[in-house]
């Protein structure tokens, strides 16, 4: 995975639940285009919903991969539901909570809750609190078990060095 849309894993109950956080920062280039100032309108930087969905996919994908010690190439197969009711802006913290609904040899389905702590409520851990702003339900495929006969690299290209570093820093793997 080339881009990381989560910053840290904060809780893991193997094969059941994983919680990750993402701090939204003006240092992220995509915020300068969504939405840039134009004419009489001031800039309104917001994190695109597609990237919030990707953050949940990474959170749930790590949970699914961890359940089998990252032996499988876990890929997102379907976004079953994606509803986010508030914008994430610079200074906000997103909390992704993924829970396992079903898992078998072919893949898994997960339920996700997105929560937001905005600067107006105070920073997370400094009196701020999270509020639920959306749900994202996903389905994953164990690529090698479903695409028999097609040639894929032997190494697990899904959980590359970037994810391994994140997981080591979060205490999920050694």
Key traits:
174 residues, alpha+beta, Thiol Ester Dehydrase, Chain A, six-stranded antiparallel sheet, 18% helix, 34% strand, globular
Number of helices: 3
Radius of gyration: 17 Å
CATH top level class name: Alpha Beta
Order of helices and strands: EEHEEEEHH
CATH superfamily: Hotdog Thioesterase
Helical content (DSSP H or I, runs of 4+): 10-25%
CATH topology: Thiol Ester Dehydrase, Chain A
Strand content: 25-35%
Number of strands: 6
Please state how the strands of the largest beta sheet are arranged side by side. Answer: 1-2-4-5-6-3
The overall pLDDT average reads 89
Q: Give the number of domains.
A: 1
Intertermini distance: 19 Å
Task: Walk me through this protein's architecture.
This protein has one domain (8-27, 43-160): Roll (Thiol Ester Dehydrase, Chain A). Strands 1-2-4-5-6-3 form a six-stranded antiparallel sheet. With 174 residues, it is α+β, with helices and mostly antiparallel strands. The chain starts with 7 loop residues before the first strand and ends in a 5-residue tail after the last helix. The chain is globular, with a radius of gyration of 17 Å. Helices cover 18% and strands 34% of the residues.
Mind sketching the topology for me?
Blueprint (H helix, E strand, L loop, with lengths): L7 E6 L3 E7 L25 H19 L6 E11 L8 E12 L2 E11 L13 E12 H4 L14 H9 L5
Antiparallel strand pairs: 1-2, 2-4, 3-6, 4-5, 5-6
Quick overview:
This protein is of the alpha+beta class. 18% of the residues lie in helices and 34% in strands.
């Amino acid at each position: 995975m080339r881009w990381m849309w989560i910053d840290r894993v904060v809780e893991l109950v193997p094969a059941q639940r994983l919680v990750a956080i993402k701090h939204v920062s003006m240092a992220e280039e995509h915020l300068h285009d969504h939405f840039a100032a134009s004419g009489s309108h001031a800039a309104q930087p917001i994190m695109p919903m597609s990237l919030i969905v990707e953050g949940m996919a990474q959170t749930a994908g790590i949970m699914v991969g961890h359940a089998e010690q990252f032996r499988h190439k876990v890929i997102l197969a379907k976004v079953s539901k994606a509803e986010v009711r508030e914008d994430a802006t610079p200074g906000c913290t997103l909390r992704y909570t993924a829970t396992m609904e079903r898992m078998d040899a072919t893949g898994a389905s997960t339920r996700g809750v997105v929560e937001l702590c905005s600067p107006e409520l105070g920073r997370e851990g400094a009196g701020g609190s999270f509020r639920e702003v959306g749900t994202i339900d996903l389905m994953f495929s164990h690529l090698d078990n479903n695409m028999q006969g097609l040639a894929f690299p032997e190494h697990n290209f899904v959980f590359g060095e970037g994810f391994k570093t994140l997981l080591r820093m979060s205490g999920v793997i050694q």
